[in-house]
Every structure is written in C-alpha cells, then in structure tokens.
Write a structure and sequence with these properties.
single chain; alpha/beta; five-stranded parallel sheet
Amino acid sequence: MNWRISSMLFAFILVSCLKNEPQTSADERSPYLIEADELQLVINQPHIKIIDFRKSEVYKEEHIAGALNLWRNDIEDASYDYKGMMASKAHIEKLFGNMGISHNDTLIVYDDIGLCDASRLWWLLQNYDFVNVKLLHGGISSWKLQGGAVTTKIPKVEKATFKLGENPSMAYYATKDEVLHSLTKNTLVLDTRTANEFTGFEQKVGAFKAGRIPSSIHIDWANAINYNGDGRFKPYKELELAYKTLNVTKDHPIIVYCHSGVRSAHTTFVLTQLLGYENVKNYDGSWTEWSYFDHLPFETDSTTEIN
C-alpha cells in the first residue's frame, strides 16, 4: 500500500470515528487532534511517525512502541544569547531527515503534560507550513488506558528526505519588534504564564529580570486543560467562557507569550484550533528574550522571588 492510499485510509478512519462521537467538547473540533483509539487503528501504517516530545531520560523509561524522541533543545536555535528560540528551516529538515522522517509522513506527537510541550512542535511546523501533524489527546496516559503498547526499546531508523517549502508563511509567529510595535496599536497581548510570573513575584531561570510586557493581560495556559486530572482539553463551552474575558472579537489581533514560547504555543493552539480565533501569533522569544533587552519596556507588581 503506497503512502497516498494509506493517507486516504487514515483520513477515512478519522472521519468515521468522529462521526460516531458526540460533538460535545472542543477537542472534537480540531483536525490536529487524534484520540488513542484512533491512533491504534493506523499506528502500523508506514507513513505514520510517532514523536515522544519529552526529555530523553523520561522517554527511555517508557514510550509508545516505535516512538522517536524529540525535546525542546532539539528544535531550538542555539546561536542566541538566551534559550528557546525556534530552530531554522534547514535545521528542522536535517534533524527530521536524520530521524528517518519524510516530508510525506504524518507525525503523531505526544507528551505527558496536557500537550503543552507537544504544542510547541505543532506551532513550529505550522509556521513552516507542514500540516501533516496531529497531537495525541490525553498524551501517553490516554494511550496506556486504551491498552496501547509501551516499551523501552529504541527504534532503529534509516535516514530519509525531509523538505519544507521555500517560502514559509510563519503564520503564527511574532518577533520582539512586532510585539513592541503592537504596544501602540490595537493589539491584545496575552500572558499565559502563572500569576506569580505575571506580577513579577517569580523570576524563572532563563529570564534576565522579572515582570511582564506592558498592558498585557493574564490567562494561565493551564486553565484550558484538566490540569490536575487527565490532562485533556476542557469542553468547548468552558473554554469559550474562559476566553470571553479577553473581551475581543475572534478576528481581533492577539499576540501570546509566556516564558519561552512553549505554554503560549499551547494557548495559540487553543485559540486558533479549538475556539476559532483568526488572528493569533505566538511571540517566539517571549519573556526570556524580552527581559534580555534593557531598552524594552516592562511592568512589575511584586518583590521578586527567583525560581
């Protein structure tokens, strides 16, 4: 079976599964999410590549059978004086090719923290216009609950060719200059960190000072998931209610940030893929980059505790 036929079968299975499920929650609205039982139906197809997006030491303890391992530093540009910046197109092409991933493959990405880390990879690939990616809803826990196979075995790979388009759209990408310019425009800047980080009480490692971008408003990224439960997205109505506090229409320009663009990538996914907001960008460098530059304005409320 060639990859085109496999892709058609994959799409048919997903559509059939979704038709049989009640449309009651936000997760069922996005083509970028896949459930554990759906993954079981297609996991052995040759064009399916599973990505365990967790630290290597956690991956080595247990992972979905056949899964490849990536972590944040694998998809970062290390040339900056601060950490967390998005890797270049050439870097991703080489990295994925060496991992045996082809540009014709479909990637299924999971983590164990409500898809927060996995969303960063989704966001990066979206900016480079690679759309053959799905996030495993509920992460590895949901897979195990469905009786899915886990292992400690590291899969062998053969190098492949992975090519991205020549002129990527960078559809969900914002730079510090765009953020600075937006402060004088009608743009909503959304801080998705904890309340302690937002007020300046807590300074996380990697930041050069505590505080927030001026005029930003706060909604913790974790409000979108059952954080102390199964890690799944909350129902659509609950998400709608939570983000109505933004008090903007769904076409209003929004720039999202956090400490290093990971939690805000998750919120970018929630806003654009689950709630239908149309003009959302994630600030790549986020507070780590912003705090590095002394000329950039910032606000703070509290005495800082470094953590």
